[in-house]
Design brief:
Strand content: 15-25%
CATH class of the largest domain: Alpha Beta
Number of helices: 18
Oligomer: single chain
EC number: 2.4.2.14
GO biological process, one term: purine nucleobase biosynthetic process
Distance between the termini: 31 Å
Enzyme class: transferase
Pfam family, one: Pribosyltran
CATH architecture of the largest domain: 4-Layer Sandwich
Catalytic activity: 5-phospho-beta-D-ribosylamine + L-glutamate + diphosphate = 5-phospho-alpha-D-ribose 1-diphosphate + L-glutamine + H2O
C-alpha cells in the first residue's frame, strides 16, 4: 500500500545469502536484510540449512517486525548457511503465501530460492509447466523458476540452473540454497544487481554492497551477467551459465533505489548521484538563492548541483524519520496532515528565497505538487524543480513497480503542463545523455525513459507497447 505522499516507483526486493558454518548465519542474514530494507518493506523471510534440512520463517512487514530473538534462535540451531529476502510486490499480490524465500522438496532434497526482478515470459512458462502437471502454490513468477529447476533436477543443481537460465527471459538475480551449498545467478544482461563478499574466509551474496558492510564482510566482486556462482565447503566456484549479453544495468538503481553507500558494478551510488547533480547544473543553470534536496534521494545530487553552480546548498526540507507506515487517510485534509507528518519545510531557510529543488524523478506528480505547495506556504519566492532523470514514459517489466502507462504524468502532459500541475516556476529534467555521462562507461537500461527494453517484454503487452511507442 502506498503512502499518501508517495508516488515514487518501488523496487521489488532484496536478496542475501551466506555460507558460514562457524557463524550465526540466521542472525547475520537478519542484519543483511536490515541493510537491504529499502528494497522492500512488505514482507521478509529467512531460510536456514543445517546441511540436511531447511527451516524457513517469513512474515508480512519489516524485518524487525517479522523476526524476534526467539525466532532467530530457533532458526539458528546448527545452521551452516542461510538465505534471506525482503519484498515489495510487483508480480503477485502482497500476501504471506507470496513471501520469500520459497522452500520446496524436489528429487534431490530440499531447496530454497529468493528472487529479485521480474520475468517477461513467466505467463508462458507457467502455462507450459501447468500442462506438464506442475501445481503452483503462489502467484509470483519466482515459483516458475523453482519449478524449472525441479524439472531439470536430475543432474547437479548447477546444471539445472544452466538449463533454467536458457528458458528465462527478463531480469533476475537469484540466491538458491540447497542442503549443502548456496548458489547465486544473475540474468545475462545484469539488469538486477548481485555481489559477492567474504567474511572470515567464507562467502556472502547480497543485492547491494551495503548488505556486506553491515555484517563486516569484505566486498569481493559483482556476480557477472549470465554467471552462476556456487558457495560450499570448498569455497567459491564460478560457471558461465549463458553468454553475457549487452550489459543493461537498471539506471534507476543509481538514480533512486540503491542505498547511497552501495557500490554496484564498480560504480559508487553516491558518486553517481553527485555527478547527476553536476550534469543538471551544466544543462540547466538557474538564477536562484539556494539549492535544496527532496530527502533523501535528492541529497547528493543537490550537493553536486550546488558545487557546480556555486549556489549555496541548504536543507530546506526535513524528513521525519520516526513516521512509520500508515494507512491512506480517507479525506483530503487528513492526507495533507499525513504529508506534513512525513516532510516539513524549514521556513527560516526558505522564506523570501528563490529555491532550486532537486528530486530524483516524477512519476505521477502528486508528491512534487504537495512539496512545492509546502514551500510556497512558508514563503518561497520562486520554486524551480530539477529532476535527476528524464521523464518516465514507459512501465518497467524488470522488477520495478511503476504505474500503468496511463497514470504516468509524462504521458499525459508535456513539460509545461507538468510544471503547471506541480506549481513550479520552472521544471527541468536531466537528459538521457546527462544520465549516461554521470554513469560513465557503465551500460544501463533506460527503458522506462525511452521504451528500449533490452531483455524483452511480456507477450501480452507487445501490441499495446508498439502503439505507445508510435505515439512518442
Amino acid at each position: 500500500m502506498r503512502e499518501p505522499w508517495d508516488d515514487k516507483p518501488h523496487e521489488e526486493c532484496g536478496v542475501f545469502g551466506i555460507y558460514a558454518p562457524e557463524q550465526e548465519v540466521a542472525r547475520l542474514t537478519y542484519f543483511g536484510l536490515y541493510a537491504l530494507q529499502h528494497r522492500g518493506q512488505e514482507s521478509a523471510g529467512i531460510a536456514v540449512s543445517n546441511g540436511r534440512d531447511i527451516q524457513v520463517h517469513k512474515g508480512m512487514g519489516l524485518v524487525a517486525e517479522v523476526f524476534s530473538e526467539r525466532i532467530l534462535k530457533e532458526l539458528e540451531q546448527d545452521g551452516k548457511m542461510a538465505i534471506g529476502h525482503v519484498r515489495y510486490s510487483t508480480t503477485g499480490s502482497s500476501l504471506l503465501t507470496n513471501a520469500q524465500p520459497l522452500v520446496v522438496h524436489y528429487q534431490k532434497g530440499m531447496m530454497a530460492l529468493a528472487h529479485n526482478g521480474n520475468l517477461t515470459n513467466a505467463g508462458e512458462l507457467r502455462e507450459e509447466l501447468a500442462k506438464e502437471g506442475a501445481v503452483f502454490q503462489t502467484t509470483v513468477d519466482s515459483e516458475v523458476i523453482v519449478q524449472l529447476i525441479a524439472r531439470y533436477g536430475r543432474g547437479s543443481l548447477e546444471d539445472a540452473l544452466v538449463k533454467t537460465m536458457l528458458d528465462l527471459q527478463g531480469a533476475y538475480a537469484l540466491v538458491v540454497a540447497a542442503e549443502d551449498k548456496i548458489l547465486g545467478m544473475r540474468d545475462p544482461h545484469g539488469v538486477r544487481p548481485l555481489c559477492i563478499g567474504q567474511l572470515e574466509g567464507r562467502y556472502v551474496l547480497a543485492s547491494e554492497s551495503c548488505g556486506l558492510d553491515t555484517i563486516g564482510a569484505e566486498f569481493v566482486r559483482d556476480v557477472q551477467p549470465g554467471e552462476i556462482v556456487t558457495i560450499d565447503e570448498e569455497g567459491l566456484h564460478s560457471r558461465q551459465g549463458f553468454p553475457a549479453q549487452k550489459t543493461a544495468v537498471c539506471a534507476f538503481e543509481y538514480i533512486y533505489f540503491a542505498r547511497p553507500d552501495s557500490t554496484m558494478d564498480q560504480l559508487n551510488v553516491t558518486e553517481s548521484r553527485r555527478r547527476m547533480g553536476v550534469e543538471l547544473a551544466r544543462e540547466y543553470p538557474v538564477d536562484a538563492d539556494i539549492v535544496i534536496p527532496v530527502p533523501d534521494s535528492g541529497m547528493t545530487a543537490a550537493l553536486g548541483y550546488a558545487e557546480e553552480s556555486g549556489i549555496p546548498f541548504a536543507q530546506g526540507l526535513l524528513k521525519n524519520r520516526y513516521v512509520g507506515r500508515t494507512f491512506i487517510q480517507p479525506t483530503q485534509e487528513m492526507r495533507e496532515v499525513a504529508v506534513r507528518l512525513k516532510l516539513n519545510a524549514n521556513a527560516q531557510v526558505i522564506k523570501g528565497k528563490r529555491v532550486i529543488m532537486i528530486d530524483d524523478s516524477i512519476v505521477r506528480g502528486t508528491t512534487s505538487s504537495r512539496i512545492v505547495e509546502l514551500l510556497r506556504k512558508v514563503g518561497a519566492k520562486e520554486v524551480h524543480l530539477l529532476i535527476c532523470s528524464p521523464p518516465v514514459l514507459y512501465p518497467c517489466y524488470y522488477g520495478i513497480d511503476t504505474a500503468e502507462r496511463e497514470k504516468l504524468i509524462a504521458t499525459q502532459l508535456d513539460r509545461e503542463g507538468i510544471r503547471d500541475y506541480v506549481g513550479a516556476d520552472s521544471l527541468h529534467y536531466l537528459s538521457e545523455e546527462g544520465v549516461q555521462r554521470a554513469l560513465g562507461e557503465l551500460s544501463v537500461c533506460l527503458a522506462c525513459f525511452n521504451g528500449d527494453y533490452p531483455a524483452g517484454i511480456p507477450a501480452g503487452t507487445r501490441e499495446k507497447w508498439a502503439e505507445f511507442k508510435s505515439k512518442c
